[in-house]
Description:
Distance between the termini: 27 Å
Structural class: alpha/beta
Number of domains: 1
Radius of gyration: 17 Å
Largest sheet: 9 strands, mixed
CATH class: Alpha Beta
CATH topology: Carbamate kinase
Amino acid sequence: xxxxxxxxxxxxxxxxxxxxxxxxxxxxxxxxxxxxxxxxxxxxxxxxxxxxxxxxxxxxxxxxxxxxxxxxxxxxxxxxxxxxxxxxxxxxxxxxxxxxxxxxxxxxxxxxxxxxxxxxxxxxxxxxxxxxxxxxxxxxxxxxxxxxxxxxxxxxxxxxxxxxxxxxxxxxxxxxxxxxxxxxxxxxxxxxxxxxxxxxxxxxxxxxxxxxxxxxxxxxxxxxxxxxxxxxxxxxxxxxx
Length: 241
């Protein structure tokens, strides 16, 4: 591994909304291509990279349930939306020369591999980027929880949460100009202050398994590589803060 990188293996969590660009729905090809370039810049450092994508740009289970749909069915639709995003990301990554595999928690062998932990680890060891789709495969769990679960299963050194801002703030900085940014937080502080970083299940899972969470802004050019190298602007969430 290149000496510039602080981590050997990482998992990047991208929300479905992060793939929309300036659109109100669906995928923006230019944005997906740009993110693929960011991932390649980290892979080029010698870091093993896996990715979990959300599906909120296509369908959000909670919203479907709020509209009167049965929650388990709505969540299943949301998980299928993440597969669409994963295949799009796979295509973009392969265009920039990376070898990839999509693994889905819901079996669909004509489209992608079914998630098998040991196989996924082997892909990472061979330098392939693994994109995990369909969340955990179960309703009532978010893709944030899926990201935490896969990070633990893969033995990742860190989970990097890509957002629309450069870290965790006391409030939404786009709505509250007085919001201040945290440099470091403990897992317990995030839970106690009810900070809207990731859901409580994801935070607790990372805390119990000692996987730090780094929150950063993926819209900033080369931000992913900067964070992996210990530079740039991000908030570190770890045991003890």
